[in-house]
Structures are given as structure tokens and as C-alpha cells.
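Practice problem: predict the structure.
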Amino acid sequence: MMLMSPPVKQLTQNDGILEVFITFLTLGLTSFGGPIAHLGYFRNALVTQKQWVTENQFSQLLALCQFLPGPASSQLGFALGLLRAGWPGAITAFVAFTLPSVLLLVGFAALLPALSNPIGEAAVHGLKLVAFIIVTDAILNMAKTLCPDTTRRTLAALITSMVLLADTAWFQIVAVAIGGIAGLLLCREPTSVGKASIRIFYSKHLGGILLGLFFFILIALPLTQPFLPELFSIAESFYRAGALVFGGGHVVLPLLEETIVQPGWVSKEDFLAGYGAAQMIPGPMFAFSAYLGALIPTETSPWWGATVAFSFMFLPGFLLISGILPFWQRLSQFTTANYAIAGINAAVVGLLGAALYDPIFIAAIRSGTDLVISIMGLVMLRLWRLSPLIVIAGSLAATLFSVLF
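Answer:
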């Protein structure tokens, strides 16, 4: 009798959306360390483990998100969900990745007492060490793939040095541009040409509409806001912040303080308290907008203020990345463009190398003990090939032990 093998289960759109939700919810609950650390978590989960995209595709998306205003890590997650499961996947990725931090920040008052003791502070510091380990591993792996020759290794090292010396967030855009120009001039060997263009399922026409919508909202909200309900004032303030800030993460804080604190919507003390809470939880820094929206006095529920604030904070970045992708798909098919992409990939490695030092290394490594814990974490991750969850648990346990004993 011939044994029949069971039929292979076909992946449906619902299966894809469920996979996106579970994956990004896990990332939203575990991605500590800020926006640069999130990129390391994303790469480990979606390139290495699940293989949703190739290393080159991941770096292309990352370069685009670094070049555009808005929250780079959330834009990257939105784009990866879009490629995996269409528009429902993009929205699912955003909600799943952002929701844990939004809920924690809106209710942060209940969390702060638990973290204001030596054990809580040690646990937070241990998570910073975990972020350092994850990002270091991601950069080493990306450098091996994206900088395989002396030219691109040199370019990455120069970009790292330039970013550290410039010490301004907007220089990230200049660095990506320098990488593209250097790629055109120097990365002309056959191995520099990438064969991993990003496939987009919608047209350039729709992309143009999305870009037009970005600019329309940016112009229309300030003009119409005085004649509309108070929630539109919140929408205008946060949309403008999300549309005009480059570098994301901590860079948005001065703009938010000018927009929210100076008009008297939120006190400076409450603003700083929320910022401190945002450092202690996983997920995107831009989720801080939900906390501020909940505090702004309105005639409606605080949840409405929180929802409007964080929705309009993220919206401009998502409109931009969605609008740009169809044009990038076409551009990346040309050989000359792939020379530029090779240089941009090296520049991205350089950008991450600079971010590994500042702010991650500076915030995480405060003693020789911290350095030893980080080295052992890298050994566990790279040489012993242990699960990242084991590395996280081991690093936290070692940090708590060093503080308590």
C-alpha cells in the first residue's frame, strides 16, 4: 500500500495577517532599548529567523526609513507588514508593535513606583545591556553581508566617524546621500549589484496619491484647525511634529516640548515624567505621544486625546514610506541604481555603528562588569547560537546579581 503524504497547507491572507500580528506583538513586548535597538530586533526576527526579506531588501527599506522624516523603526515595521500581508498586514504590524507601549504609557503612573527601587533600576539597566548585545550582533552580521569588500568596509567606517563627529540627527540624511554617491563612483564591481529589488503590489499612481495626501494634510490642518473641534488642534500639532522631525526617537522630544509644553497643554514636570517612563518600556519612542494626548485637557475622554495624538504622530511617516515604495521599486531595477544601493547599504552599516556607540554603548556600559556581561551575551548569541530569549534572561540575571551582591 502506498502511503499518501499529507497535503501542504497553503498560506492564506488571514494566516499571513495572524503571523504578522503575533510576530510584531512579540517585538512590541520585548524590543527594549530605543529605535536603533529595534532595528536589531527586527533583523534578527524577520531576516534571520523568519526570512520574510533578504538582507539587501531589509537594508534598502532601512535606508529609505532613515532618509524620511518620522519614526524609522515603526516605518520599517509598517513596510515589512505591507510586504508580507498587504495593507491589512501593514496596519496590523503597526497596531501590534505600538499597542503595548501605548497602553503602558497611558497607565505609566502605576508602573513608576515598581521601577523606582534598586531591583527595578537594575532590571532596566539589564535591558540596556541586552539592547547593546542585540544591536552589536546585528551590525556584525549586516557588515559581513553588506560590506564584503575593502571599499564598502572603508565607506562604513568613514560614515561612522563622520556621524559621531557631526553629532546631529539631520546628518543621517547627508550620510545616506554620501553613501549613494560613493556607491555610484566606487562600487562598480559586479558583486556590488544587488539582486533583491523590493516588490510592491500597488501602482505608482497610488503612491503619488499617498504623497499628495501627506502634503495636503500638512497644509490643510493648520488652515482649518481654528474652525474645527479641539481634537483637531491635537491632530495638527502631532501631525506637524511627525512630519517635520528627522532622526525619530529622542530627536522629536524638543519639537514636542515646544508644541505641547510651551502652550501650557502639559506641564514640564509631567512631560519629563512621561519621557522617563518611555525609557523603561519596550516599543517605539513615538508612543510617548499617546501619553501626552491623554494629558491634554479636552471635553472628551483622555483615550480620545491619546488615540488622536499617537495616530497623527505616526500617520505622516506611514504616508511617506507607502508613497515612496512604488517609485523605489522601479528605480532599484536599474543597474546604476544598484551601484548607489551598494553604497547606501554600507552607509547604513556605518550609521548603525555610530548609534551603537551613542547612545547605546554610552547608556549601557557603565562599568567593567557591564562590559563582561555584554561580552558573555555576545558569546552566547554568536558562538553558542543560543536563543535570544536565553541571552535576555541571562543578561538580566547577571545584572541583578551584580547589583544585589
